[in-house]
Inverse folding.
DNA sequence: TGTGAATTCATACTAAGTGGTAATTTATTG
DNA sequence: CAATAAATTACCACTTAGTATGAATTCACA
């Protein structure tokens, strides 16, 4: 466990907006001058690999990360692409399709709700 | 409606693997020599805008497109990132969380199942 | 505190996507 | 069917996101 990993993990854990690797890099470099961009990318992959963070599925062309690895779901804003969390126990009861005819061995799932975030709702058009 | 749009739409509609913009560009350029990469990107955004195609949420850092805009869900392979469709009526009955405490105006949803695809299941490791 | 292994830094690179402008092409209208 | 205005496309350069490689540093443990 290195200083870099701790700082990156902390930076990810303290925010709820599912940042991209470059966003985290901008945050982390202010706390740890000289940290390299490559390190942030690599450490994030490591964190995902050991199961303390996850990549969020999203329609944008960039990876987004989340320090919350519990079963929960996401709200994606159609306008500004912001991503919010939704913890709703009722959504965690979905029966995994066993015989789905696709041959996939399903291990988990996550629901992406699309909609319009509070900020974009109040902004005209 | 231009030739380019028709060819791109056809190329997207005839495949089920949710291709990226560059994958479509490679296909389309063989049918329409001289078509520009930018055009493929722009037309795909247009097709999404008019509602005849959609962007698929996925954990990779690239946009994936789908000509099927009906309510259905996706299977994402953890190993090779392949994306398959799953049409399961039971999954289309989810009640949209009304009072979700987030202020989001929810308009739709899609479930991403994670797992291992048939190809990767039979390949060791 | 020394040593080997793992991690990080620096740099350069590839891949994915965007922006601006001139040139085409389309659709429309007479 | 030809003229023309509007929309679309091509070309080029550029930004952003992510990856590869090897040298240098740091960590963990004896």
């Amino acid at each position: 466990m290195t200083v870099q990993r701790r700082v990156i993990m902390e930076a990810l854990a303290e925010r709820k907006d599912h940042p991209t690797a470059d966003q985290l890099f901008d945050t982390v470099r202010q706390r740890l001058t000289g940290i390299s961009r490559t390190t942030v990318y690599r450490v994030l992959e490591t964190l995902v690999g050991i199961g303390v963070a996850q990549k969020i599925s999203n329609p944008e062309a960039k990876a987004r990360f989340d320090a919350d690895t519990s079963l929960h779901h996401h709200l994606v804003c159609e306008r500004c692409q912001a991503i919010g969390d939704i913890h709703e126990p009722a959504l965690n009861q979905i029966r995994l399709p066993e015989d789905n005819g696709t041959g996939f061995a399903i291990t988990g799932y996550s629901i992406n709700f699309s909609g319009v975030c509070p900020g974009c709702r109040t902004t005209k058009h």
